[in-house]
Amino acid sequence: MEGRQSVWPALLSALIGAGLLVAGLILPWIDDRSGSELPWRSALPWDLSQPAASSALVSLALPLGLLAGLCIIAIIVRVRGLAIALGIALLGLEIAWFASESFRRTRGDLLVSQLEVGAWLSLGGAVLILIGAFLTPRWEQQVR
Question: How does pLDDT run across 61-83, given as a tens digit for each residue?
């Protein structure tokens, strides 16, 4: 076990990021609406209507939580490539929501000042999860 790297730095970063992501989904993102009230279709730029999500199963919280959970599992089992792909998909979904929200606004350049704490916490959590994915050591077969 001499050359084996520890998974703990990657897992700690991902767990802190997941905590920030969950906290961000509970807090307001924009216009006093939390991430669990925004429909997942709000990440698509062509869906300009903004109805409220009827439940968490159709909200933005489901795909974000699912991607974060799968990424943490990939980190635990040391599947580095999958963890990185899931982390990039998670961050990409966050960025897609930011971009589509700026398309919806008449002045997209003011979006940064209109975003509330939940959106920023979720974005920071996604970045920490992606950092954890890059810190994941490669799986090594133990030789006895």
Answer: 889 999 999 999 999 999 999 99
